[in-house]
Amino acid sequence: MGGVAGMRGRQTVRGMFQSLGVIMVAAGVMYLFIPHDDKADPVETKDYRVELLTAQRAAPYPVLAPEGLGEDWRATVVSYKREDHDAWQLGFLDPDTQYVAVHQSTEEPKKYIADVTQQAKDSGRTQTVGGQVWQRWEGPKYDALVRTDGGATTVVTGTASFDRLAQMAGALQAKKA
């Protein structure tokens, strides 16, 4: 009697391993046929509406954010630091995956601009975007469009071209919270 039960137990274990083998093969085949994007973009797009509302309520100046940029502009960085000269930062990857950021602060302009542009210098040239005159700053890492207005310095900066920086600058809107 004991011998038959032992045999059945071994068959059950062998059957389990065979089933497991079939499942593993099926999973492997499925894996092969599912498309894998090795260049999948790990960048997470942020929804910055809550931070924007908070900044607009708290800041002593009109906080700017872009309106009407396409879906191919993806927000990746957002922060508002009241304790750090009411600093607002909103960073995007543009359609060419270059970085474009909007920075605003009540900090002393020269120091602030140098910090957020990673040491860009005033080129002495200006660029008019949407009827507003911006100073063009050029740097080893980031270029920038800069304006001081409404008690704050606004810097549109990044690795993108001046055309893209101007596109962002032209899209900036202030909404009263």
Q: How would you describe the overall organization of this protein?
A:
34% of the residues lie in helices and 33% in strands. The protein contains 4 helices and 9 strands; from the N terminus they run H-H-E-E-E-E-H-E-E-E-E-H-E. It has helices at residues 2-33, 49-58, 109-116, 162-171; strands spanning 64-66, 74-81, 87-93, 99-105, 121-129, 132-138, 143-149, 152-158, 172-174. A 7-stranded antiparallel beta sheet has the order 2-3-4-8-7-6-5, sandwiched between helices.
Helix/strand class? alpha+beta
Shape, principal axes of CA atoms? elongated
Tell me the series of helices and strands, N- to C-terminal. HHEEEEHEEEEHE
Average pLDDT figure:
88
Helix content: 25-40%
Count of DSSP-assigned helices: 4
Query: What is the CA-based Rg, rounded?
Result: 28 Å
Largest sheet: spatial strand order: 2-3-4-8-7-6-5
User: Biggest sheet, open or closed, and with what strands and sense?
Assistant: 7 strands, antiparallel
Compute the number of strand runs. Answer: 9
Distance from N terminus to C terminus (CA atoms, Å) equals 83 Å
* Low-confidence residue ranges: none
The percentage of residues in β strands lies in: 25-35%
